[in-house]
Amino acid sequence: MPTILIVGAGKSSIYLIEFLMKSSLKIHHKWNLIIADADLESIKSKVRDQANVEIAVLDISNEQERQALVKRSDMVVSVMPPHLHILLAKDCLQFKKHLITSSYASPEMRELHQEVKDAGLMFMCEMGLDPGIDHMTASQMFDSIRKVASDITSFQSYCGGLIAPESDDNPWHYKFSWNPKNIISAGKDGAHFLKAGKKVDVAYHDMFKHNKRVVCDGVGTFAYYPNRDSLSYIDLYELQESSTFMRATLRHPDFCKGWDALVTLGLTDMKTTFSTEQMTNAEWIKKVVGFDGGRSLEDFVWDKLSTSDKKLKDMLLWLGLFENTPIREGLLTSGDILLDILSEKWAMKSTDKDMVVMQHEVSYDYRGVTNNLISTMMVKGEDSMHSAMAKTVGLPMAILTELVMTKSIRMPHGVLIPTMPEVYRPILTRLEKHGIVFEEHIF
To answer: Which residues pair with 214 in a beta bridge?
Structure first.
């Protein structure tokens, strides 16, 4: 019987797992599922007792264990951290298995393209929310516009995993609905985009300073910061004629202000390590910011930030940065310590709801007149487990898996992202049935 291997049972996997469990029981489907993760309890929290579903506790770095599961499968779906996809990719190539991931296609992954294509395999990367739904909806918009119009002159895309207003009860206006480690590394590599025909480069230490705003149609006003290397998608989207091209991440304006302060203080650093034996939060802050005594630690930090902003001060105080709270012992970076603090402070309560917002803004020429198209999506979660983030990341992967397993689409080959009509059309149609819908207006 055909078998699907899902590797990863973290925060973003619940809808993926539940969809494929239900789909596997349909009379005309009939396939087995293997759900693998290092954490048995994480798997059990998402998998019900079902005869065709197998649980596997997996150390993904163990080649023998990993390859044994890949060999048994026809399709591998990876919900692992981005740097681990390549392990499964090489196994899938060796044993001739298809692969779907939700993460950015790394240079290592892209190097496999010709081998994967020659093997008649599909390695579909960037098949989640952002990247994923953004690629599919943008490509659908571009293809529709090109049927009636000429040049697409501008494209700006925004997406954010946010806390729903009814669950927003902290000064940062943020809680974790996805892998917390990703927040520490956000913006580390800087960003590159195109604005009015000019290439713009933004360094990490400037990423959160400008706090520019965008109005998301019918949802609200948010701050945004540019997302990685937008320029690399110009050719993939075939938008060489566009003078503006930017992909960006949405956050609450206060969040960006606070995160900029953490970056400025060096609290997000992931390179320098030090022993934290018998260290407290306050001692850590003193060490990182170079506290020289003579005044309170708080006053020293405010001077270092050149701020008198009470709201910003309250945000940092709320995190407990200046308190004598013990830090777990080990050889840690500042980023590790900050992540521990945030994981507790920004944890979602069981009844909390998150919110995902995505908006595309496109300008194009039609009969000599510039038209502007705005397309907006807003999805709210049900609770902390069935989150909007898990839904919008997991369902695109699940639907593509079902389409491939049932031979319902003409499957493309190679290391790809979902910009082709044969992939995005059926998936977007099915996503609408799950409430993932975009509202458009032209002006």
So the answer is: 222
Q: Is 120 left (phi over 0), alpha (psi -120 to 50) or beta?
A: left
- Whether 358 and 346 have beta carbons less than 8 Å apart is answered as no
**E strand or H helix at 40, and its extent?**
helix 40-44
Output the six-digit token pair for 415. Answer: 């290391």
pLDDT of residue 306: 96
| Number of continuous H segments (helices) and E segments (strands) in the chain | 16, 18
Q: How many residues does the chain have?
A: 443
List of E strands, 152-211: 152-163, 191-195, 198-202
Contact 140, 425 (CB under 8 A): yes
Q: Which helix (H) or strand (E) holds 75?
A: strand 75-78
DSSP 91-144: HHHHHT-EEEESS---HHHHTTHHHHHHTT-EEE-S-BBTTBHHHHHHHHHHHH
Residues 6+ apart with CB under 8 A from 369: none
Spatial separation of the C-alpha atoms in residues 191 and 231, rounded to whole Å: 9
Rg over alpha carbons for the chain, rounded to the nearest Å, is: 23
Q: Please tell me the predicted confidence (pLDDT) of residue 54.
A: 96
Sheet holding 53-57, edge to edge: 53-57, 32-37, 3-7, 75-78, 98-101, 122-124, 414-416
Show the low-confidence residues of the chain (pLDDT under 50).
none
From 249, 295, 294, select the one nearest 156 (Cα to Cα). 249
Residue 30's pLDDT is: 83
Predicted pLDDT of residue 275? 95
Q: Is 314 helix (H, G, I), strand (E, B) or coil?
A: helix
Which pair of tokens denotes residue 412? 């493309």
Amino acid residing at 389: M
pTM of the entire predicted model:
0.93
414, β-bridge pairs: 122
Distance between CA atoms of residues 162 and 341, nearest Å: 19
Instruction: Report the b/e string of 227-239 with b at 16+ CB within 10 A.
Output: bbebbebbeebeb
Smallest Cα–Cα separation from 148: which of 365, 338, 408? 365
Domains plus CATH for the chain?
Answer: 3-125 (3.40.50.720), 133-259+349-380 (3.30.360.10), 266-345 (no CATH)
Write b or e for each residue in 193-223: b if 16 or more Cβ atoms lie within 10 A of its Cβ, otherwise e.
bbeeeeeeebeeeebbeeeeeeebbebeebb
- Residue 52 has which token pair? 């065709």
